[in-house]
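2024-03-11 09:14:02 DEBUG pipeline.ingest accepted 1 chain
2024-03-11 09:14:02 DEBUG pipeline.ingest length=458
2024-03-11 09:14:03 DEBUG pipeline.predict start
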Amino acid sequence: MIYQKELVVENADVVVLGGGPAGFCAAIASARQGVDTLLIEKGSFCGGMATAGLVAPFMTCYDSGGNTMLIRGLFEEIVERLIAVGGALHPSKIEASSAFTSYITAGHIHVTPFKAEAMKLIADRMLKEAGVRVLYHTSFVDAEVENGTVSKLVLAKKEGLCAIKPKIVIDCTGDGDCAVAAGVPYTLGNGNGRIQPATMFFRIGGVDSAKVDADIEANRDNFYRKDGVNYRSMHWWVSKAKEAGDWSLNRVSIGLFRGVDEDEWSINTSRIMGIDGSLSQSLTEGEMIGREQVDEIFAFLKKYVPGCKNAKLLQSGSTLGIRETRHIHGMKTLVLDDLLNCNVPEDSVMIAANSVDVHGRFGPASNEYITIPENKYYGIPYGCLVAKGLSNLLMAGRCISAESEAAGAVRVMPPCMAMGQAAGTAAALCSESETDTRELDVKILREKLQEQGVLLYV
């Protein structure tokens, strides 16, 4: 490396790397405990997949029966603040099998439509109010480890390389960049070469939504699943377009989610196989392919789908929607049976009932989708957020210690926000008491989280 290792520009009690759904919640939770907290984000705003990726809506925060809102705390506060500025609809008002859920029933009751621009604003406001020191346009470069502790972080600011000495680090980079640089072992994808496919999300406006609804209702009885592939919204039009030479993608249906404004929709249809989101070259290729796919899908919508003739392309994601890369090894590992058996360990720091959703499991057009039993839920233990072998490194978001299939459930944004809140609160407690993250009294952490409105049991 060509930086000066002895250069240290400042210290911080808690450093959060990455300002996505997990990261900005972690920073807020830490700072609200009165701890000096620094948030590092390579972009120019927070929100990650919710803003830069245009991933929408927030998937469900309820149990699969839609009876109890399980993910609360900071997530619920964010939703309420978005609603206050006209930037979201409350999940309690959103039913399954509606335009807001892409007409999907299983696992999609009470999702949360929201606006990406409002999300940027609310994140900034909450960070400022909490007293977080925010550094946008700053990238993580490297981590130095001494005696099992991350002793120094090297960052790239606009003005050049710098270094910082943290007490506690929270890796919310999505890919576990800091953990990997610090030598923590990890598994890429499922460990056997399969990584969930990426998606280039995009938004359209000017849609006659009543016509879209009418077309769906006229064909509702024609929804079915065959050979691991769901034939749902607009598959009858995709078939016609394919016959006419207007469709080349290995997709059979259109994932379209109505937004807060009646004429706006988020499109989740693009599928890019073989992308490793932890590699710059792979990301570059994926984003170029993704924009070509957006162009083809949008042309299809305008030509074939009722209500979309006068639609306008508002925006494509400024980054790919990445579902999976590295799973960092931790003190504990979340496995599929934990979810399916609805295990809630005593050291759980959040509960959820999000479905297991593994895209591309049976081929490019397929997915595996397993819902959690009605009125049941599972817990994520604190140990899944604690990096293996280090005394001061936590993780939150999709890079936590989890097997690929289990991660397919908790990678979505509401659970990631809850993980962030748990990690931020844990980091503050460890910093204040100078406690090894591996030795934190989880009972105290759980009490703090419950004081913050986090639900740990029903």
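2024-03-11 09:14:41 DEBUG pipeline.report The first strand starts at residue 10 and ends at 17.
2024-03-11 09:14:41 DEBUG pipeline.predict end
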